[in-house]
């Protein structure tokens, strides 16, 4: 059971938009910044979003992040088949004094 | 090129020990927090441990506390994870990852390729 809650799967057609939610509590999302990762099959995770809504160099602006209270959301617009992957949210938990991840969301681009 | 390369994974019996290493290159290793994250076969990411840039602070997931020890040698640009009392549920790919800065504990911008740890008799 993951500390952060994500939907197991989402799907949308190419060119469309999708959002992935990440729900936590006051000790994690509520008091720390959120990151998002993309993991393509058989590869290491890749940082997509940090500090709730910032994109590392090289990440297209089709990817966006937001946070409100104890929840965060990843948005992906202009979906491409290459976006099919598992997506994870992560943050620090001040009560656990450790990092925490969501269970992951599998994105299918139909 | 900024790079992290893990090594030390392999087959170990339940109750056994193993030490993982993560060699860093292409950046000033001593300026960043470092982390271990694992992923059991077919499962999601699980946070394992973190260490501050100077090695003075360490943090562990409850699932490994008391059994695993994280350390670093900034003179050798290397991160370590000493694993003991290994259990079947510790079987996973272990990734080392770099925090974005010396104060970043939850955004990991560089990841290694991972090393597989198999716990089986």
Structure description:
The complex is a heterodimer of chains A (110) and B (121). Chain A is mainly beta and 110 residues long. In chain A, 0% of the residues lie in helices and 45% in strands. Chain A is built from no helices and nine strands. Chain A has strands spanning 9-12, 18-23, 35-39, 46-49, 63-68, 71-76, 85-93, 98-101, 105-109. In chain A, strands 1, 3, 4, 7, 8 and 9 form a six-stranded mixed β-sheet that branches. Chain A has a three-stranded antiparallel β-sheet with strand order 2-6-5, with no helix packed on it. Chain A is globular and about 40 Å long. Chain A starts with 8 loop residues before the first strand and ends with a strand. Helices cover 0% and strands 50% of the residues of chain B. In chain B, strand 7 (68-73) and strand 8 (78-83) form a beta hairpin. Chain B is globular, with a radius of gyration of 13 Å. The model of chain B has no long low-confidence stretch (mean pLDDT 96).
* Proportion in helices of chain B: under 10%
Distance between the termini of chain A: 28 Å
User: What's the average pLDDT of chain B?
Assistant: 96
Q: How many beta-strand elements of chain A?
A: 9
C-alpha geometry of chain A: globular
């Amino acid at each position: 059971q993951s500390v952060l809650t994500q939907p197991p799967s989402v799907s949308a057609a190419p060119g469309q938009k999708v959002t992935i939610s990440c729900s936590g509590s006051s000790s994690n999302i509520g008091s720390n910044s959120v990151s998002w990762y993309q993991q393509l099959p058989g590869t290491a995770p890749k940082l997509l979003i940090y500090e709730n809504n910032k994109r590392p160099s090289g990440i297209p602006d089709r990817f966006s992040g937001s946070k409100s209270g104890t929840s965060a959301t990843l948005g992906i617009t202009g979906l491409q088949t290459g976006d099919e992957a598992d997506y994870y949210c992560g943050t620090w938990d001040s009560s656990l004094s450790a990092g925490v991840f969501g269970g992951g969301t599998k994105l299918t681009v139909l | 090129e900024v790079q992290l390369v893990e090594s030390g994974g392999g087959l170990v019996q339940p109750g056994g020990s193993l030490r993982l290493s993560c060699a860093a290159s292409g950046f000033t290793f001593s300026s960043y927090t470092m982390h271990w994250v694992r992923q059991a076969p077919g499962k999601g990411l699980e946070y394992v441990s973190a260490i501050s840039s100077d090695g003075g602070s360490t943090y562990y997931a409850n699932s490994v506390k008391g059994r695993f020890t994280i350390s670093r040698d900034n003179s050798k640009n290397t991160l370590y994870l000493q694993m003991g009392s290994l259990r079947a549920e510790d079987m996973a790919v272990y990734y080392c990852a770099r925090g974005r800065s010396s104060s970043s504990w939850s955004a990991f911008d560089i990841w290694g390729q991972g090393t597989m740890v198999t716990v089986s008799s």
